[in-house]
Structure formats: C-alpha cells, structure tokens
Amino acid sequence: MLYHFLVPLATEHILFNVFRYLTFRSFMALITALVLSLLIGPPLIRRLRRAQHGGETIREDTPERHRTKRGTPTMGGVLILVAILATTLLWANLRNRYVWVAMLATAGFGLLGVWDDLTKLRRRRGLSMRVKLGAQLLLAFLLLQIVFWQPPATWLPVLAIPFFKGWLINLGWLWIPFAMLVVVGASNAVNLTDGLDGLAIGPVIMAGGAFGVIAYLTGNFRAADYLKILNVKGAGELTVFCGALIGAAIGFLWFNCHPAEVFMGDAGSLALGGAIGTLAVLTKAELLLPLIGGLYVVEAASVILQVASFKLTGRRVFRMAPLHHHYELSGWAEPKIVVRFWIVSFALALLALTTLKLR
Fold first, then answer.
1. Residue 204 · residue 311 · CB < 8 Å
2. ∠ CA(115), CA(302), CA(251), 5° rounding?
3. Range of the structural domain that residue 240 is part of
4. In a domain, 257, yes or no
C-alpha cells in the first residue's frame, strides 16, 4: 500500500526513492511485523484465554509431562496471520501476482486451521483427516491455477534441478499435482512438528530467511544469470513477504518460547507450512524444500515410518512419534530438544543456499 502511495513521489523528492528498493521494504516489513506482533500479542492472548475458558488444548498422543501445560490457550496462529498479512499489504507491490498467491495461501490454510482448532475446542476432536486433507488439496489446486495459466513468457511449469545449471524438466500439466503435493505436504509437516514450545516456529524463521534470499536472486535477472538459476520475473517481490514472515515468527516466538504463553495451534502451523510450500513453488525451489525444511521432513517421516512399522510388524521404531517426543521419552529436556533441532534446521538452510553457487 505504501509502495503505491510513496514511490510516485520519488519524482518530486529523492527521499521517497528508497521505497523502490526491495531490500529496504523487506527489512521494514520484518520490523513492522515484529513490532505489530509484540503489540497485539498480549491482548490477543488474554482474549484467547478468556474465550477458551481453560479448555483442553493438549493433544492426547503426547508424553504425560505435557499435562502440566493444561490451560495454555491455543489458536495463537491468528497473531501470525494478522502480522504477516497486514505487513505485506503495507509494504509490498500489490500489483504482483505472486504476492497475492502467497498471501491467499497463508490466509486460506490459516482459516482452515482456525476451523480445526475451534472444532477441537468444542468437540474435543478436530476435523477428520479426510475433510482436512480434502480442503487443503482443493485450496492448493485453486491457488495454483492463478500461477499456471500465465503466458509462457512469464511462467513455465518446469522443475529446476539443484547442483546442475540449466537442468530443467518441463512437467506440463503434471506441474499442478506436483505443486499441490509440495504445498499440502509442507503444511502437514509443519503441523506435525508443532509439539514443543518454540519447536515449529524457530525453523520457520530459518526457512523465511532462506526463501527471502532465493526469491531476491530468482527475481533479479542479473543475479539469476550469474548464478545460473532460473529467473522468475516478479518473484523478487516475495522478499517482502518473507520479511513479514520472519518478523511475525520472531514476534510469536516471544510468547511461544518455553514455557509457552500461547500455542500456535493449527491456525498457525497449517498457515506457515502452506506459506513455505507456496514460496518453494513460486521461486522454483521445490527440490530445495526438503533441505530448507529438512526438520519438518524428518518429523513427518518419523510419523510415517512409525505407523508403517507398527502396521506391518507390530513393532515401533521410536518410543513415540513425531521424533521430538522420542527424545522427550529418552530423557532430554524440552529446551534442549528445541535448541538442537533449531541448530540442525539452521545448518540445513545454509546448506540449501550453497547449492545456488554449486552449479
């Protein structure tokens, strides 16, 4: 919004020229989202606590010591949604198609998460897996139509192969189901990881930073040509969205660090996962997502492996899945698990960025 009001004034005064720069607007988006989160966090948490009347917000399939967290309000993801969307509307170029796709994905998956959270509070059980997955697939399908049906000069349904320059696979119409799998898979992976105070939100900060760098380089023709990566015209504006994502995540972490004052709930985890998956698709970094979001992939894989092993052999691979619960039952303190998982996530995000040069 500010972009459209202030950039035209650059012809009258050089001071307003700074609003043209992606780097300036991205950092301002980060700061704005952070400040907004810190301001609206306390009153929102109080409101959630009153509205939920101390209702059960702890999952049944968690270690016994989690029962001490009873009464902690959930649906804190609403704070993240407000901060990301309001900040992006304020600082981004709203004529950019990719910015709207990212915002709609965040809002759409977030609203689905709110629906699921409210259902849990009222009925003690959330939406059925069939309803939740069906809604996710439908939402992803509709959003990807906005991207797919663009002129070939603007967008190609190709898959970029990391480590190799110029290696592109044209998927044609198969790109849509592939991209749906990426977005929905990322959304559910973050949802599964959200089980300890601060565990899921920390890697979101790393992923937001990594995708911010990728979006900036991918959208810049000279940088993309130098690094031999695919240039996606207009993708650079997603850097502003990534700045808002990082700021909102840091602001939420202020309230979600151990011991948590609020849980993000599905309202936050589904929205953040959908946002990360959408960023991967829009920046042509789908195959880098397993590295950037490596922690989420491992957590989701641990659940799949546990279920498969128990059904096939009757034995469990881990003491409890997802993986962070296994370490809890092994005697690790919650803060130790969270910080060590953050370190792994940070290392994987850096590794993913190195692939941009190794081509």
1. no
2. 50
3. 2-285
4. yes
